[in-house]
Write a structure and sequence with these properties.
The protein is of the alpha+beta class. The chain has one domain: 2-Layer Sandwich (GMP Synthetase, Chain A, domain 3), CATH 3.30.300. It contains two helices and three strands; from the N terminus they run αββαβ. A three-stranded mixed sheet has the order 1-2-3. The N and C termini lie far apart (about 45 Å).
Length: about 90
C-alpha cells in the first residue's frame, strides 16, 4: 500500500514540476508517515521564493490531496514565512 500511495503522490508532483523547474526550482517528497502525513521540501529557487506558500497551498497540497485523499496533511519543511500584517 505504501508504495502505491507514494507512486500517486509522486505522480501528482510530476504534474507540477515543469512549472517549478521553469523558475529554477523543484520539490522533493521527503516522507509519508505511518499516520498518512506527507512532508515535502522545496528545492532550488523555490526554497527562498516569497511565493512558495501560495505555490504550496494552491498547487502542491491540493494536487497531493486530490491524488491521495487518505493523506491527513501536507507539510513543507522549508516554507518561507510570510510577515504578519499589522
Amino acid at each position: 500500500m505504501q508504495t502505491e500511495l507514494k507512486n500517486r503522490i509522486e505522480a501528482a508532483l510530476e504534474t507540477l514540476r515543469p512549472f517549478l523547474q521553469a523558475d529554477g526550482g523543484d520539490v522533493s517528497l521527503l516522507e509519508i508517515t505511518d499516520d498518512n502525513r506527507v512532508k515535502i521540501e522545496f528545492l532550488g529557487a523555490c526554497k527562498t521564493c516569497s511565493m512558495n506558500l501560495m505555490t504550496f497551498k494552491a498547487g502542491i497540497e491540493e494536487a497531493i490531496l486530490k491524488a491521495a485523499p487518505e493523506i491527513i496533511s501536507v507539510e513543507a519543511v522549508n516554507k518561507v514565512a510570510t510577515p504578519a500584517l499589522d
